[in-house]
């Protein structure tokens, strides 16, 4: 899948979620905003109530989307024979799509009314969704191959170029300027701070300072704009790899802990969802068939 096709693919998935949410929200707005005791008298009640044609359908589709989204992604990760069916990151994106659209449909199925055992499943679903957002953030912080496989620390380190050699061979820099640039971009030992946000800010500030210092050196050496652009790409790449190496182990550990939170909520949601479906069928509720 080319970059352009991939962007279209993501845009289509996002558009489906947005349009579905807006369409149902617009159609049922007057119904959903009513107090529960007044909904019976609304014209849309028979369609939008949880057991109505639309409401029931939302629940069925939402449940199917979540189940399909979870299990096809798990299968793609576990079965080697599925590795030929596209890159893992595309499957993850489709998993996110189904597991975003599914909860939205389930939300409309409840008609914004929660209670009893089902509420546990619903809030578990919300927890799964929110933890999924966090998991996605952690996931993209871990360097990966183009196929989506996690890179090891040695593989990340192998991406580093010998910056000094590249600059010395490609550009007319004196020894002092060259040493300054290498020193600016070399990973510095930073004072550890307990606050994660402070650590991130300090690292970001140090990176900006390094880039600014390199620009000053290039300016003193009368580099042309194309030369500056090329060197800065090298420098930013070097800084980026340094940061990847620095956060790789941390993010991998966070990802393991994230599974401890994400998976139990998912199992609770699925178990109660199954109980809900069985009870519904037992009491004779049917959809359009």
Topology (SSEs and partners):
Layout: H1 3-27, H2 29-32, H3 36-39, H4 45-48, H5 53-78, H6 88-109, H7 116-141, H8 153-158, H9 163-170, H10 175-185, H11 196-220, H12 225-282
Structure report:
By secondary structure, the chain is an all-alpha fold. It has two domains: 3-152 and 252-282, no CATH class; 159-247. The chain has twelve helices and no strands. It has helices at 3-27, 29-32, 36-39, 45-48, 53-78, 88-109, 116-141, 153-158, 163-170, 175-185, 196-220, 225-282. It starts with a helix and ends in a 7-residue tail after the last helix. The mean pLDDT is 76.
* N-to-C CA distance: 39 Å
- Principal-axes shape call: elongated
Total number of domains: 2
Helix content: over 70%
* Strand percentage: under 5%
The chain-level structural class is mainly alpha
| Biggest sheet overview | none
Count of strand segments: 0
Q: What's the total helix number? A: 12
Order of helices and strands: HHHHHHHHHHHH
Features:
single chain, 289 residues, mainly alpha, 76% helix, 0% strand, elongated
Task: Give a nutshell description of this structure.
This protein is mainly α. Helix content is 76%, strand content 0%. Helix 10 (175-185) runs antiparallel to helix 11.
């Amino acid at each position: 899948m080319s970059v352009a096709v991939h962007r279209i693919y993501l845009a289509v998935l996002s558009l489906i979620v947005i349009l579905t949410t807006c369409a149902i929200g617009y159609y049922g707005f007057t119904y959903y905003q009513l107090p529960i005791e007044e909904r019976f008298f609304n014209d849309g009640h028979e369609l939008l109530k949880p057991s109505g044609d639309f409401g029931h359908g939302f629940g069925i589709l939402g449940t199917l989307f979540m189940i399909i989204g979870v299990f096809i992604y798990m299968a793609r990760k576990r079965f080697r024979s599925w590795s030929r069916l596209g890159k893992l990151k595309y499957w993850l994106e489709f998993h996110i799509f189904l597991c975003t659209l599914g909860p939205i449909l389930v939300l409309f199925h409840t008609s914004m009314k929660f209670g009893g055992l089902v509420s546990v499943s619903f809030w578990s679903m919300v927890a799964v969704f929110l933890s999924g957002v966090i998991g996605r953030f952690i996931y993209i912080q871990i360097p990966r191959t183009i196929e989506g496989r996690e890179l090891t620390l040695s593989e990340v380190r192998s991406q580093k170029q010998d910056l000094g050699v590249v600059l010395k061979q490609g550009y007319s820099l004196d020894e002092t300027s060259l040493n300054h640039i290498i020193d600016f971009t070399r990973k510095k030992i930073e004072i550890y701070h307990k606050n994660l946000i402070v650590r991130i800010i300090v690292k970001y500030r140090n990176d900006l300072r390094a880039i600014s210092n390199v620009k000053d050196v290039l300016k003193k050496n009368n580099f042309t704009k194309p030369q500056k652009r090329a060197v800065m790409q090298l420098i930013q790449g070097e800084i980026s790899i340094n940061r990847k190496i620095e956060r790789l182990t941390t993010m991998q550990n966070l990802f393991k802990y994230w599974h401890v939170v994400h998976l139990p909520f998912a199992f609770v949601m699925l178990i109660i969802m199954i109980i809900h479906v069985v009870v519904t069928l037992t009491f004779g509720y049917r959809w359009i068939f």
